[in-house]
Amino acid sequence: MKQATRHYVSDVAFTPAVKAVQNQLGSRNGYAKMERGRGWAEKITDDLREFIARRDSFYLGTASAAGQPYIQHRGGPTGFLKVLDDRTLAFADFGGNRQYISVGNLSDNNQAFIFLMDYANRRRVKIWGWSEVIEDDPELLEQLADPNYPSKPQRAFVFHVEAWDVNCPQHITQRFTSEELSPLVEQLHSRIVELEAGNQRLRHTQQEPLDEKELHHGS
User: Fold this and answer.
1) Structure confidence at residue 143 (pLDDT)
2) Nearest CA-CA partner of 90 in 144, 137, 148
3) Is 164 left (phi over 0), alpha (psi -120 to 50) or beta?
């Protein structure tokens, strides 16, 4: 689909209708100042690259030709969403429920959206852009495949970044993965073993019989 002409990077989200509502509800001046200042980023920075490399899931938004939105959860090993360059992301698509809603939507409407969550550190990143589905690039599929995952990639989703922004942590409830909790659980387990061993030694000491010298002294 043809990309709309934008004066600011954030116009990808702040459409005329959105700006009208911002004016009505009193937030337009603040966002206009942001637009004239640093604005939103349109290239992948080192910080964003590191953030993406630590994620094991994200949400992909697409829409049909009629504009019906669809959100799909994508999960995999940590870092399965790859940064190809400072404007491009990609990930491998494996066999699933065979509904192909995202694939079909993108064939009609290439506008797409990626939403990344870091629940442990209460951070969220929104990325706007457009996406294409590539099925005939063995070199790209090999680059995106996980050698520890037994299934063969069927296709690649390539996401072209147009803008991204970081939200505030408000209302994000902290959640932790088993991988994030594992070191803490291991520390607690080691401490429990240490305390149980100490208690066992203490009980053993208290149960030892008094020797003959102590018995005579006591009488």
Assistant:
1) 92
2) 144
3) beta
